[in-house]
Amino acid sequence: MDSATAARTAPREEWPEPQAKRRPRHRPSAWLAALLLAGVSTILGHRIADSDGPTPVPQILAFLPWLLAPTIAGLLLAALARWRVGLVWGVVALGGVAWFMEPYGKTDDPAGPAVAELRVMASNVEFGQGTPGLLKAVREEKPDLLFVPECDYTCSDTLRDELPRSDYPYRTASEASGAEGSVIVSKLPLKKASGLAGTLGMPGAVAELKSGHQIRIQLAHPMPPLPKQLGTWRTELAELRDYAAEGRRANRSTIIAGDFNATQDHAAFRDILDTGGVRDAARLAGSARAPSWPADLMSPLGTQIDHVLVTPDFSARDARFLDIGGTDHRTLVVDLTLHGQKR
Question: Which pLDDT tens digit goes with each residue over 102-146?
């Protein structure tokens, strides 16, 4: 009997069994890993597409660095399940989160000579509740320009009565109750400006330096990205973008400061930086990811939604976030230098 005949007549139980398709050993771990990585990938996809997307994408984008936690968990679960596709997926997602955690925006310094030094403070006092702490911070920091969103009638009256008129003789305000009130207080003379129309108060003015240089100043307080208010949020951020772009076209120095209810991970905020031609002073000073809200979380947590945006003729030496108490926001203090035209 030849070998071919022997192979055909061999008992069936001696035939080699076909190799079973390899599957994850811990299927529940693999499914959970896929669920976590799919969620992270959805958010990253909107970030890559430069889109804020529908709820809950904008709300999650505000805390983009927190995506490290589900990404690492998904990666560990994929390793536990010995799921090769999941391991690759997790590594790619982790790299994507790390990439977008990098600070956004230009940082090159102005080339012209220094014209003036300014200290700017922006402080959302949460319906006026943080006013006592704000007063203490103002007395210690002595800002030249103070932007106060959510400054209600009582807050506005307190700032008028408690801050020395000799130090802060100038102000412009959207007088209102609750979150709709906002105030700008200044050491510098202010000329009236129309401000921006919004659900919450956003007054504006033109500050005049002793040198004769004029600076357009605008308080920012668009609606937050609540599930039923996304359209309003985008519209009011677009108004701030258009205000910044107007100053860029006219080559006029501009400061926009306050509670933007948006971070560098929101496309609508990046549009202000890119189209409006302004820069984030905290980014210039090396504090791009320092959290400003909510203040009751530990410092590494939270997100930065309070900003001071400036035109490229400003440089920033320092940016600090202060806990003043009574409010869910930290107060931002920025030291700016205004530069003239290069000679």
Answer: 999 888 889 889 999 999 999 999 999 999 999 999 999 999 999
* DSSP designation for 224: P
* Six-digit token string for 81: 């399940």
**Six-digit token pair at 92?**
């790619």
In 129-230, the DSSP E strands lie at 145-149, 170-174, 182-186, 190-192, 204-208, 214-220
Q: Is residue 2 classed as helix, strand or coil in its secondary structure?
A: coil
Instruction: Write the CA distances from 43 to 3, 99, 232, 247, integer angstroms.
Output: 62, 14, 22, 33
Three-state DSSP state, 79: helix
Residues 6+ apart with CB under 8 A from 12: none
Cα dist from 161 to 44, 129, 168, 180, 184, whole Å:
49, 16, 11, 21, 15
Nearest in space to 134 (alpha carbons), one of 297, 335, 328, 326: 326
Q: Is 270 helix (H, G, I), strand (E, B) or coil?
A: helix
Close Cβ partners of 129 (under 8 Å, ≥ 6 residues apart): 326, 327
Question: pLDDT tens, 169-215?
Answer: 999 999 999 999 999 999 999 999 999 999 999 999 999 999 899 99
DSSP H helices in the chain: 3-9, 27-48, 57-61, 68-80, 84-100, 131-141, 153-162, 230-250, 267-276, 281-284
Question: How many C-beta atoms surround the C-beta of residue 166 within 10 A?
Answer: 7
